[in-house]
Amino acid sequence: MEFRDLVMQRYATKRFDGRAVPEETVQAILDLARFAPSALNLQPWRIRVVTAPAQKEQLLGASWNQRQITSCSHLLVCCANRDLDAVVARLERALVEAAAPEPMRQAVVGMAQGLAQSLSAEGALAWAQGQVQLLVANLLLAAQAHGVASCPMSGFDAAAYSRILELPASLVPTMLVPLGYPADTPAPKLRYALDELLV
User: 1, 11, 28, 153: which has the fewest C-beta neighbours closer than 10 Å?
Assistant: First the structure.
């Protein structure tokens, strides 16, 4: 499928038909999402995959009763990792394991450490959540490429999600991406003209 077709055919599915997406398809979508860009390649995110109907029912109330949560096949809870020291240390280990040249490793890690040290706790979370948006963009297009519908969702109670899913304190649920097969039809796309995009 051409990239333009992916972009134009993707839409925010509001109702799924309940059919299960094959696990191998979900794994392929997640594998493509791994290659999302991030600043300094820090990848400050983790994804919790929720499939159990009982757990999705628990999350429904924390999602403003939006039925995508319970009708989808797989609910991807995309979390920002606000522990930037741990994120930087993880990248440094990965660079060592990949036998990255020492000057490059030192430069990248030095910049990443400088970033982490320059941010307040609130700033670190805001920065990591901004990076999660890049991950979500990859997820949405990867799903469409595999014939799977999706819906980016930010309307939910992150604290309740953390509690229900028993997430570590360093991970903050930031965006939801339910996956499944649609039980609705897309409305025509409404986007502003190109000249309204440019300043």
Answer: 1
